[in-house]
Write a structure and sequence with these properties.
Elements (H helix, E strand, L loop, with lengths): L2 E4 L6 H14 L3 E4 L18 H9 L5 E3 L7 H4 L10 E6 L2 E6 L17 E3 L7 E5 L2 E5 L13 E5 L3 E6 L5 E6 L2
GO molecular function: hydrolase activity
InterPro entries: Calcineurin-like_PHP_lpxH, Metallo-depent_PP-like, MPP_YfcE, Phosphodiesterase_MJ0936/Vps29
Organism: Motilimonas cestriensis
């Protein structure tokens, strides 16, 4: 199974369009969204192409292939525009003989981990900075942000397949980070 991971869209239609093109190119099975889908949030500037209603409409075209969690900028009213659930602050998947704990990162994060077992993959966002690494017996994975990257990081997305965790630049698919799952 191949998972295409994005986070922190913050209502940016232009960034989402680039991500959906990459999702198609990568031929992933599912689109995983780690929160902050429609709203830009009070601490963020408006992202380029801020059109939350159009973002919802575009994502609804892929609803059957989306697995999403709620971010700190998502609200109940957002769910009324989306045809896939985003109400839960976390979700879990079992795939490729591994457990994936999916969260935005404002409740569970690297300093407040949920109960995890050896080899599990902790997938989070919120920081807008990409991570793909093994720490002790766990794997940590953050795809960065497609719309509002922070620090020196460019806009990015993530891929998870049987071989490993990859973070790629949104604009040209260049590999930025890789962690083997062996």
């Amino acid at each position: 199974m191949k998972l295409f991971i994005i986070a922190d869209i913050h209502g940016s239609l232009s960034s989402l369009n680039l991500a959906l093109k990459a999702f198609t190119r990568q031929q992933a099975d599912y689109l995983v969204i780690l929160g902050d889908v429609l709203n830009h949030g009070p601490r963020n500037a408006l992202p380029n192409g801020y059109e939350p209603a159009m973002v919802a409409s575009k994502l609804n075209e892929f609803a059957k292939r989306i697995i999403a969690v709620r971010g700190n900028c998502d609200s109940e009213v957002d769910q009324g525009l989306l045809n896939f659930p985003i109400d839960a602050t976390y979700n879990q998947l079992l795939a490729n003989d591994r457990r994936f704990f999916l969260t935005h990162g404002h409740v569970y994060h690297t300093d407040a981990l949920p109960p995890l077992s050896k080899g599990d993959i902790f997938c989070f966002a919120h920081s807008h900075q990409p991570v793909a690494e093994k720490r002790g017996h766990l794997f940590y994975f953050n795809p960065g942000s497609i719309a509002l990257p922070r620090g020196e990081a460019p806009a990015s997305y993530g891929l998870i397949d049987q071989q490993g965790l990859s973070v790629k630049r949104l604009f040209d698919d260049e590999l930025m980070l890789y962690q083997d799952l062996a």
